[in-house]
Amino acid sequence: MHASKIAKSYLCPVEKVSNIIPYFIKQLNGIVQEREIISLAYISIDFLLGYNRSDCIIHSDKDITSEVSDRIKQIIVDLKTNKPIQHIIGEAEFYELKFNVNEHTLIPRPETEELVKWILEHEFSSALDIGTGSGCIAIALRKNIGAEISAIDVSESALLVAKENAKINEVEINFLLQDILKTTALPKADVIVSNPPYVLDMEKEIMLDNVLNNEPHLALFVPDNNPLLFYKKIAELAFTSLSKNGLLFFEINERFGKQTVAMLNAIGFVDIELKKDINDKDRMIKATKN
Question: What pTM value is reported for the model?
Answer without folding.
Answer: 0.83
